[in-house]
Design brief:
Largest sheet: 6 strands, mixed
Strand order of the largest sheet: 3-2-1-4-5-6
Radius of gyration: 17 Å
CATH topology: Rossmann fold
Number of helices: 9
Distance between the termini: 10 Å
Low-confidence stretches: 200-204
CATH class: Alpha Beta
Helix content: 25-40%
CATH architecture: 3-Layer(aba) Sandwich
Strand content: 5-15%
Length: about 200
Protein backbone atom coordinates (compact mmCIF):
# COMPACT_ATOMS: atom_id res chain seq x y z
CA UNK A 1 0.00 0.00 0.00
CA UNK A 2 1.39 3.42 -0.96
CA UNK A 3 2.60 6.01 1.48
CA UNK A 4 0.18 8.87 2.10
CA UNK A 5 0.96 12.50 1.26
CA UNK A 6 -0.15 15.09 3.84
CA UNK A 7 -1.27 18.35 2.23
CA UNK A 8 -1.69 21.47 4.41
CA UNK A 9 -3.60 24.07 2.37
CA UNK A 10 -4.13 26.71 5.07
CA UNK A 11 -2.14 28.30 7.88
CA UNK A 12 -4.41 27.10 10.70
CA UNK A 13 -2.73 23.78 11.57
CA UNK A 14 0.71 25.40 11.73
CA UNK A 15 -0.56 28.31 13.81
CA UNK A 16 -2.44 26.08 16.23
CA UNK A 17 0.36 23.60 16.74
CA UNK A 18 2.86 26.41 17.22
CA UNK A 19 0.70 27.98 19.94
CA UNK A 20 0.72 24.62 21.75
CA UNK A 21 4.46 24.20 21.06
CA UNK A 22 3.70 20.94 19.22
CA UNK A 23 4.80 21.45 15.62
CA UNK A 24 6.68 18.20 16.13
CA UNK A 25 3.40 16.31 15.80
CA UNK A 26 3.46 16.93 12.05
CA UNK A 27 6.66 14.92 11.91
CA UNK A 28 5.19 12.15 14.07
CA UNK A 29 3.01 11.21 11.12
CA UNK A 30 6.10 10.44 9.02
CA UNK A 31 4.32 11.50 5.84
CA UNK A 32 5.59 13.70 3.00
CA UNK A 33 4.30 17.24 3.60
CA UNK A 34 2.96 19.60 0.96
CA UNK A 35 2.37 23.27 1.85
CA UNK A 36 0.71 25.79 -0.47
CA UNK A 37 3.25 28.47 -1.44
CA UNK A 38 1.25 31.55 -0.43
CA UNK A 39 0.46 29.91 2.91
CA UNK A 40 4.17 29.32 3.48
CA UNK A 41 4.86 32.96 2.59
CA UNK A 42 2.11 34.13 4.94
CA UNK A 43 3.37 31.95 7.77
CA UNK A 44 6.99 33.08 7.47
CA UNK A 45 6.74 36.70 6.29
CA UNK A 46 7.61 38.51 9.54
CA UNK A 47 10.97 37.45 11.01
CA UNK A 48 10.40 39.75 14.00
CA UNK A 49 7.46 37.61 15.12
CA UNK A 50 8.33 34.43 17.08
CA UNK A 51 5.67 32.35 15.31
CA UNK A 52 6.94 33.22 11.85
CA UNK A 53 10.53 32.47 12.85
CA UNK A 54 9.60 29.17 14.50
CA UNK A 55 7.39 27.93 11.66
CA UNK A 56 9.97 28.90 9.02
CA UNK A 57 12.72 27.14 10.99
CA UNK A 58 10.53 24.06 11.38
CA UNK A 59 9.56 23.83 7.70
CA UNK A 60 13.03 24.67 6.40
CA UNK A 61 14.79 22.28 8.79
CA UNK A 62 12.54 19.44 7.68
CA UNK A 63 12.71 20.23 3.99
CA UNK A 64 11.26 19.06 1.90
CA UNK A 65 8.01 19.53 2.38
CA UNK A 66 7.30 20.37 -1.18
CA UNK A 67 6.02 23.93 -1.50
CA UNK A 68 3.10 23.69 -3.93
CA UNK A 69 3.13 26.60 -6.40
CA UNK A 70 0.07 28.66 -7.25
CA UNK A 71 -0.43 31.55 -9.63
CA UNK A 72 -1.51 33.77 -6.73
CA UNK A 73 1.60 32.89 -4.73
CA UNK A 74 3.90 33.69 -7.64
CA UNK A 75 2.16 37.02 -8.33
CA UNK A 76 2.44 38.02 -4.68
CA UNK A 77 6.14 37.13 -4.53
CA UNK A 78 6.73 39.22 -7.64
CA UNK A 79 4.93 42.13 -5.97
CA UNK A 80 7.07 41.67 -2.85
CA UNK A 81 10.24 41.77 -4.93
CA UNK A 82 9.02 44.94 -6.64
CA UNK A 83 8.02 46.56 -3.36
CA UNK A 84 4.35 46.71 -4.34
CA UNK A 85 1.37 46.37 -2.03
CA UNK A 86 0.29 42.78 -1.40
CA UNK A 87 -3.24 41.44 -1.38
CA UNK A 88 -4.63 41.10 2.13
CA UNK A 89 -6.41 37.87 1.15
CA UNK A 90 -3.63 36.31 -0.93
CA UNK A 91 -3.55 33.19 1.23
CA UNK A 92 -7.27 32.57 0.80
CA UNK A 93 -7.06 33.14 -2.97
CA UNK A 94 -4.10 30.77 -3.24
CA UNK A 95 -6.04 28.09 -1.38
CA UNK A 96 -8.92 28.40 -3.87
CA UNK A 97 -6.37 28.25 -6.69
CA UNK A 98 -4.76 25.12 -5.23
CA UNK A 99 -8.04 23.36 -4.46
CA UNK A 100 -9.53 23.96 -7.92
CA UNK A 101 -6.66 23.89 -10.42
CA UNK A 102 -5.19 21.01 -12.38
CA UNK A 103 -1.77 21.96 -10.99
CA UNK A 104 -3.04 21.91 -7.41
CA UNK A 105 -4.90 19.25 -5.46
CA UNK A 106 -6.02 17.51 -8.65
CA UNK A 107 -2.40 16.79 -9.51
CA UNK A 108 -2.04 14.77 -6.29
CA UNK A 109 -5.34 12.94 -6.40
CA UNK A 110 -5.31 12.18 -10.12
CA UNK A 111 -2.76 9.41 -9.67
CA UNK A 112 -4.96 7.54 -7.21
CA UNK A 113 -2.31 7.76 -4.46
CA UNK A 114 -3.63 8.24 -0.89
CA UNK A 115 -3.78 11.88 0.20
CA UNK A 116 -4.71 13.43 3.56
CA UNK A 117 -5.80 17.07 3.65
CA UNK A 118 -5.11 18.73 7.03
CA UNK A 119 -7.00 21.98 7.50
CA UNK A 120 -8.80 24.38 9.80
CA UNK A 121 -10.31 26.86 7.37
CA UNK A 122 -14.02 26.03 7.27
CA UNK A 123 -14.22 27.56 3.78
CA UNK A 124 -12.14 24.74 2.29
CA UNK A 125 -14.35 22.59 0.11
CA UNK A 126 -13.65 19.53 -1.99
CA UNK A 127 -16.12 18.94 -4.80
CA UNK A 128 -16.55 15.32 -5.91
CA UNK A 129 -14.18 14.04 -3.21
CA UNK A 130 -11.95 11.29 -4.63
CA UNK A 131 -12.20 7.94 -2.83
CA UNK A 132 -8.52 8.07 -1.77
CA UNK A 133 -8.71 11.57 -0.22
CA UNK A 134 -8.91 11.81 3.59
CA UNK A 135 -10.16 15.11 5.07
CA UNK A 136 -8.84 15.87 8.54
CA UNK A 137 -9.02 18.90 10.83
CA UNK A 138 -6.38 19.70 13.45
CA UNK A 139 -8.69 18.68 16.29
CA UNK A 140 -9.45 15.35 14.62
CA UNK A 141 -5.73 14.82 14.00
CA UNK A 142 -5.09 15.17 17.73
CA UNK A 143 -7.94 12.78 18.56
CA UNK A 144 -6.42 10.25 16.18
CA UNK A 145 -2.92 10.67 17.59
CA UNK A 146 -4.27 10.05 21.07
CA UNK A 147 -6.13 6.97 19.89
CA UNK A 148 -2.95 5.37 18.51
CA UNK A 149 -0.84 6.41 21.50
CA UNK A 150 1.35 9.11 19.93
CA UNK A 151 0.14 11.65 22.50
CA UNK A 152 -1.31 11.06 25.94
CA UNK A 153 -4.13 13.60 25.69
CA UNK A 154 -5.64 15.48 22.76
CA UNK A 155 -7.53 17.66 25.22
CA UNK A 156 -4.25 18.77 26.81
CA UNK A 157 -2.87 19.93 23.44
CA UNK A 158 -6.17 21.63 22.55
CA UNK A 159 -6.07 23.39 25.92
CA UNK A 160 -2.57 24.67 25.15
CA UNK A 161 -3.82 25.93 21.79
CA UNK A 162 -6.73 27.80 23.32
CA UNK A 163 -4.94 28.93 26.51
CA UNK A 164 -1.31 29.68 25.54
CA UNK A 165 1.05 30.20 28.45
CA UNK A 166 4.47 30.62 26.85
CA UNK A 167 5.94 34.11 27.15
CA UNK A 168 6.20 34.66 23.38
CA UNK A 169 2.55 33.76 22.73
CA UNK A 170 0.25 36.77 22.69
CA UNK A 171 -3.41 36.77 23.81
CA UNK A 172 -4.47 37.05 20.17
CA UNK A 173 -2.52 33.89 19.36
CA UNK A 174 -5.02 31.71 21.19
CA UNK A 175 -7.00 29.51 18.86
CA UNK A 176 -10.76 29.10 18.52
CA UNK A 177 -12.18 25.88 17.10
CA UNK A 178 -15.67 25.40 15.71
CA UNK A 179 -15.27 21.64 15.27
CA UNK A 180 -14.95 20.60 18.92
CA UNK A 181 -15.18 18.11 20.48
CA UNK A 182 -14.24 15.56 17.82
CA UNK A 183 -13.06 17.57 14.83
CA UNK A 184 -13.67 16.75 11.18
CA UNK A 185 -12.50 13.30 10.14
CA UNK A 186 -13.83 12.22 6.75
CA UNK A 187 -11.90 9.04 5.87
CA UNK A 188 -10.87 7.97 2.42
CA UNK A 189 -13.04 5.20 1.05
CA UNK A 190 -9.89 3.54 -0.28
CA UNK A 191 -6.20 4.27 0.10
CA UNK A 192 -4.22 3.43 3.22
CA UNK A 193 -4.21 3.41 7.00
CA UNK A 194 -1.63 4.75 9.45
CA UNK A 195 -0.28 3.64 12.80
CA UNK A 196 2.91 4.75 14.60
CA UNK A 197 6.25 3.39 13.42
CA UNK A 198 6.49 1.35 16.62
CA UNK A 199 3.46 -0.65 15.53
CA UNK A 200 3.05 -2.91 12.53
CA UNK A 201 2.88 -0.82 9.34
CA UNK A 202 2.61 2.92 9.15
CA UNK A 203 0.07 4.19 6.70
CA UNK A 204 -2.91 6.50 6.71
Amino acid sequence: MNRCTLIIPDAGPFNSLWVADRLDLLLALDMPLVVVDAVYDELTSDPSYPKDRAVKAFIDANHPPFIAPTEIGEMEREKRRAGKKLKSNAGELAIVDFMSSDDGLRRYVSSGEPVALLFEDAAIRVINKPPHLHLLSTVALLRGLEKVGVIDSADAVIHDMTHPTKADRRPQDRRAFTDLPDGIDDPAAIGSTWVPASAVGRRR
